[in-house]
Amino acid sequence: MKVLLVHNYYREPGGEDQVFHSEADLLRSKGHEVLTYTRGNTELAGTGSSALLRSMLWNHRTFREIRDLVRAEGAEVVHFHNTFPLISPSAYWAARSAGAGVVKTLHNYRLVCVNGLLFRNGAPCEDCLGRTPLPGVVHGCYRGSRAASAATALMLTAHRVAGTWEKAVHRFIALTPFAKDLMVNGGLPTGKVSVKPNFLEFDPGTGDGAGGFALYVGRLSAEKGLPVLLEAWSRMDDPMPLRIVGDGPLRPLVQSAARSNAGSVEWLGQMTLRSVVDIMGQAAFLVVPSECYEGMPRTIIEAFARGTPVVASDRGGMREMVEPDVNGVLFPAGDSAALATTCSALMMKKPAGLLRLRKGARATFVATYSADGNYARMMSIYGEARAESEHGGGGHLRGHGGARGGEA
What pTM does this model have? Predict the structure, then answer.
């Protein structure tokens, strides 16, 4: 099967970029011919607001380029990761018009929320779910700007009215059952949404956790729970060292914490994937204190691969990834006191208890997040999309809910 992968890079690298590259590598390793089409938000420099709005609604350039690429190369499936804002939903129609099966991974909640996070004022927000995203405009949810939010809301509303999600995409990939249910409740056709988790494209082997430190890896931002994490560490009388990897708008807060808590908090900045995986294996446990509905943090998968337990907030899909007393521990999101208590208890666990969690984490990776199992699921979804494209399938089945935990 010849596959075209499409992705719009953000200004700052993130997990979506890693998944895009990992899936390309996996497909190539299985003998598929893989083409890629990418744009990047660095192209936005000097772009006027009216030009950007036109591109967000319908980018004629990407429509032509993707349509012509699919026709010229005979791509059977076009798999989209991010299309916002430059590639635009016009690309789905381009791929479909050229006869390919169209697949879209839902890395975030952009199709039902203007900021893509379902998060506002420090808490999850579902005000726009299943309706016109006017609340997102009123609150300026995208970049704190009502104008930018209005542009994003216009794009979402126009393509909802045009039936883009129902007619131009053959299969959506949700990363967890929790995410699938949210997106179906937001209006995506239930019969078109399949569940496939992310994966780690290589097996790094089990670490020993002998470093004696807790680890955070990710964007340094409020929705990721950084303030809660730092507050929790300040509550502990004798905390284990905390190492923080990543960058973002809260870098000054992290640097200040590192200066005032020398020895207990250390900021390591950005690191390569291989370096992150290496330090994962040394960590006693990974902390994921996110306050938003995470899609599927790759850092959790990387930790499991190394046999490193995970302390995560009980929010969104993380409840479906972290099984208490098997591969980690959950704590109430946003509760720094509970996080401090949870981490302190984990630090004091006897070696046998920690070893059991490490074995559970590693077993979870092997069973759920390894490459071969993921490939089989991907091929099944590609086959469904291809079959529907060959029969001219559009489909108008619209879901209105369903039991959490279902899978198409």
Answer: 0.90
